[in-house]
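The following block was generated as part of the benchmark described in Methods. Ligand: zinc ion.
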Amino acid sequence: MRIILQLLGFYFLLNTMACAQPIAFDHQKLANSYSSYKEKKITDRRFKHRDIEPILQGLKRPFSVEERGQSIEGRAIYTVSVGSGDKTVLLWSQMHGDESTATMALFDIFKFLAADDGFNDMRDNLLRELKIVFIPMLNPDGAERFQRRNALGVDLNRDALRLESPESRILKQMRDELDADWGFNLHDQSRYYAAGNNPHTAALSFLAPAYNYEKEVNANRERSMRLIGEMNAVLQQYIPGKVGRYNDAFEPRAFGDNIQKWGTSTILIETGGLKGDLEKQELRKLNFISILTALHGIAEDRVGEFPVSAYDKIPFNESNAFHDVILREVQVQNNGNWYTVDVGIRRRELGGDTPLPYFFDAYIHDLGDLSTFFAYESIPARGKRLIPGKIYPKVVSDWKALKSLKVADLWQKGYTTVRMDVIPARDILARIPLKVISAKETTEDRILPGQHPALILQEKNVNRLMIINGMIYDLSKSNRERLEWWKGL
Ligand SMILES: [Zn+2]
């Protein structure tokens, strides 16, 4: 009998030890198998409510999907709930209609949570310990136009007190109903932010929002800080130096700040820019990894172990530190003389409702000594001259006539700009290697901030680069066929 009791005691001891074992979470393995979780129905940033609605309606066990209300224009806003734990987590994305990166990641997380594979231990633990409620695309009317504000013209993130918009009321109601322990406020920030004063873009930035002007730290806010420190530690392995801390000034009308104040530990995630990732698909994956890292930390009750100091070390965002292109120390002509300046160019994303993946025009954002600024593409140009391209003398009647022109021949004669009687849709124009203006327009022959010129970089009177709509064409590399691809549009 004694032996049996001893054995039993030993068994229970072993069992307790097994329960206390942390559940393994290998983020590298998760990153490697990401493609199997990627929701392939969403391929670019400009998806609409009608693209996600069927996916949401098709979600099965373990999810429960509910329509919680409608936007100003009557688009359904859904919650997706999963898990039976007593730690409650609320995640909402795209409160700003043109900030869609995290929404994509949430759909990938749904696929992850529904899968059955080598992550079962971790996944089962999440569903056992947490109750998670997602609101993907809180502002579907804004998403429709790919604009920040909702259909009423209200910035939902300044409507947390008045709650005038139905979208705001849904978010408030969900927070209160769930009395969420944790809140994830998912946004996109400018592509031009740096992570601290260094030449790295803030690919992702975080904030444990302040709940008062004094930026005091209570237990709730401190938990947010600790968890962000852990998310950053993981991200550093993928994008070293490219994580920033968002401006921590208190905004009394914002949701993040108020949700923190209402007792939910809140984490703001802002997706920024990453070189070579205009469609933000790599950033989507990093959102996926960091959100799952966070959920795992919460489920494992490990947040208290993560040091606050790790959060404090994340450099603050340096706003407006980046340009798309900077031509360094280039010569520009003005009133007959040549001057040495840096020329900073920014691309501007055009259009709302078009399926084309990229379309930009560009303007000179700044000019002068830009040695304290960074660029996605920095072009050393000392001793070289930057001149505006010339306007093709004939007015082109229509799209067909435009297509009959040979870009390389035009460039050879220094023509970058074509006047047209009937201008085709501007999103198409912004993709072609010519600048198109109306027949009555002229272009400035000086290079000045605010202008949108097509430019030529010359070395000893030989054209080296063409800079048109913010795109750079290296003449030593361009072949003639490549320049004509747009004629298939
Ligand atoms: Zn936002």
